[in-house]
Specification:
globular; 4-stranded antiparallel sheet; single chain; mainly beta
């Protein structure tokens, strides 16, 4: 499970998602409504300790269908928004 996640947008402009993941997460991947799979690059930031943060910006005509988190072996950690 992610440590935290936020997805949304305002009335105009793109939508955005931010995810903070625990140390055991090696890969975060978003599945959008057009079936595109987008890897969210994760970054270490000192204020978050060992957790990492990633962001995704996508167009308003798409919806986030799923957030897949995987460990270093590629095993799904089954996190969904």
């Amino acid at each position: 499970m992610p440590a935290a996640r936020w997805f949304g947008g305002d009335d105009a402009g793109p939508r955005m998602g931010i995810v903070v993941v625990r140390p055991g997460v090696a890969k975060a991947e978003a599945v959008l409504s057009d079936r595109a799979r987008v890897t969210i690059q994760l970054h270490r930031t000192p204020p978050l300790g060992r957790n990492r943060v990633g962001a995704l910006v996508y167009t308003r005509d798409l919806d986030l269908h799923r957030l897949d988190l995987r460990d270093a072996a590629g095993v799904s950690l089954d996190a969904h928004p």
